[in-house]
Amino acid sequence: MIYTQQQAHQKLRDDIRCYWQLENNGQEPLYYTIMPDGFFDLLVCYHQNNLEKVFLTGLWTKKVNVVILPKTKIFGVQFRLLAIERIFQESIAPLLNNMKSLEKTFWGLDTFARNAAAVSVEHFDQYLLSHIAAKDRIDARKVKLLKAINVTQGNQTIDDYSKQVFWSARQINRYFRSTFGLSLKSYCTIRKGAASFSQIKQGQLYPDQNYFDQSHFIKAIKKITGHTPKELTKNENDRFLQFSIIESR
After folding, report:
1. Pairing verdict, β 16-24 and 50-57
2. Distance from C-alpha of 246 to C-alpha of 64, rounded to nearest angstrom
3. Distances from the Cα of 204 to the Cαs of 120, 214, 223, 244, 245, in angstroms?
4. What kind and span of H or E run contains 23?
5. Poorest-pLDDT segment among 23-32, 124-133, 195-204
6. Which of 57, 119, 219, 244 supports an S-S bond with 238, CB 3.0-4.6 Å?
7. CATH number of the 2-131 domain
8. Could you tell me how many helices (H) and strands (E) the chain has, helices first?
C-alpha cells in the first residue's frame, strides 16, 4: 500500500483537511478498518488507470471495514465541516454512515477518465477557488461555530460554543442534526477522540484531551472505534488504516 497526502491551497484550508492518495499496486486485495474522525470525503476511484466511480461520503459514527482491490488507486479530498457551507451548500445528513455515487463528470473529473496520474491537487484547488461561496451568502454564526470546533478539535462543551457564537445550544443542535445528521455533542465526541489517535499510536494511553479520567477516555475511544486504546496501539496486521498511515499525516 502506498499512501501520500498534500495540503490544499492556503485559502481552502478552512474547508479541506488534505488531499490524499492510496494505491494498491499488488496482486492481492488489502483489508482495512477506518475509524470515525469527524471529516467527510470525496473519493475518486480508479482501477487499472480507468476512472470507475466517484463517491461522496457523509460523517461516520462507527468504524467501517473496506477492501482495496488490486491495481486500484483512490484519490481523496478530505473535507472539514465548513466545506458544507462554503463549497457544497447542501445537507449531508442523509449520508450519515453512508456514501452516495456521483457522476464521473462531477467537478470535471471525466477529463481524467483514463489517466489517474493526471488527477492533481492543482485541478481541485483551481476548481474550488472559483466555486467557493461568497462570505455574505453564509450565516456568520455557522462559519464562526465550525471554525471554533475545528480549532478546538471538539474539546469544549456545547454551552462554550454557544456563548462564543451567540447562538443558542438548541438552535446549534437543530442545525447539526439537519446538516450533518448528528448532534454537536456526538460530533465533538468523535472529533475529540480522533484527535488522540496520534498519541495513542505513540503508546500514550491517556492523552491530554480534557477527559475526566483514564476510565472516561478508554470508554470514549471504545465508543467511537469499537476498540480500547491498548488494542489500537497493537494495530495487528496494520488493520487500522489511520494508525498505519499516521506517520505520514
Report:
1. unpaired
2. 18
3. 36, 11, 18, 16, 17
4. strand 16-24
5. 195-204
6. 244
7. 2.60.120
8. 10, 8
Q: Residue 11 region, left (φ>0) first, then alpha (ψ -120 to 50), else beta?
A: alpha
Domain boundaries defined on the chain: 2-131, 137-240
**Cα–Cα distances in angstroms (integers) from residue 206 to residues 125, 214, 215, 228, in the given order:** 38, 6, 9, 12
The DSSP 8-state label assigned to residue 213 in this structure reads S
CA distance 30 to 39: 23
Question: In the Cβ-directed half-sphere of 239, how many Cα atoms lie within 13 Å?
Answer: 13
Cell of 172: 446549534
Taking a C-beta distance cutoff of 8 angstroms, is the pair 231, 243 a contact?
no
pLDDT tens, position by position, 11-49: 999 999 999 998 999 899 989 888 999 999 999 999 988
Identify the three-state secondary structure at position 134: coil
Stretch among 66-80, 122-136, 139-153, 195-209 having the lowest mean pLDDT: 195-209
Residue 52 CA to residue 114 CA, distance in Å, equals 10
Q: Distance (Å, rounded) from C-alpha 101 to C-alpha 95?
A: 11
Superfamily of domain 137-240: Homeodomain-like (1.10.10.60)
- Please state at what angle helix 214-225 crosses helix 184-194, rounded to 10 degrees: 100
129 within 8 A of 12, measured Cβ to Cβ: yes
